[in-house]
Amino acid sequence: MQWRNSTSRYGLTSIVLHWVVAVVVLGLFGLGLWMVGLDYYSSWRHTAPELHKGIGLTLFAVMLLRLLWRFLSPPPPAPANHGPLTRIASKAGHAFLYLGLFVLMISGYLISTADNRGISVFGLFEVPATITSIPQQADVAGLVHEYLAWGLVIFAGLHALAALKHHFIDRDATLVRMFGRTRK
After folding, report:
1. 86: burial class by Cβ within 10 Å (0-12, 13-18, 19+)?
2. Burial class (CB in 10 A: 0-12, 13-18, 19+), 76
3. C-alpha angle 141/47/21, rounded to 5°?
4. Residue 131: CB atoms within 10 Å
5. What is the tally of structural domains in the chain?
6. CB neighbourhood size of 24 (10 A)
7. CB 69 within 8 A of CB 13
């Protein structure tokens, strides 16, 4: 399998980045849901948020790499059977996923640094608090983070359903290309 994307399929780099981001986002969503329900006496009360922040900042770096890779190795064009509306919806959907993920991660950063303290990334280094003067920063960023997380997970589910629809109903190469294959 090739590393770079071709005109007919995605390369290994794009495939790995896609699936790693998908799994990590779903994992962070589950961790986030679980950790907000922890009570004061839970041994995970401080550990879970620190883990969530460290993984989230690592995901931010991976998303920057993914965005850079998208410019260095553009995705294959849409299959020939996709009409203009499908092509527009696909581009808009991918733009929403990329933009939404970046806004989600920035809002998480703003929540975590609202008290003017940096964020430790697994004890290896600290990301400094650079923006701390927004009125009600933690509360506003918290609402953005919560609602956008739900919106992205729901939209990712619709994205998966659309890929399955293309595979099983339209019988085109949309899904198999993300596994590095072409439809025969």
Report:
1. middle
2. middle
3. 60
4. 13
5. 1
6. 16
7. yes
Residue 67's CATH number = 1.20.950
Q: The whole model's pTM is what?
A: 0.94
Q: Look-up: residue for tokens 């509306």? A: 85
Could you read off the pLDDT of 74-93 as tens digits, one per residue?
Answer: 999 998 899 999 999 999 99
Look up the domain containing 44 and give its range: 12-177
Q: Please report, for residues 76, 96, 163, the alpha-carbon distance to residue 79 in angstroms, rounded to integers and kept in the order given.
A: 9, 21, 13
* Residue among 83, 80, 92 nearest 173 (CA): 80
Phi, psi at residue 32, to the nearest 5°? -60, -45
Q: Is residue 21 a part of any domain in this protein?
A: yes
- DSSP secondary structure, 69-114, as one string: HHHHSPPPPPPTT--HHHHHHHHHHHHHHHHHHHHHHHHHHHHHHT
pLDDT tens for each residue of 118-135: 999 999 999 999 999 999
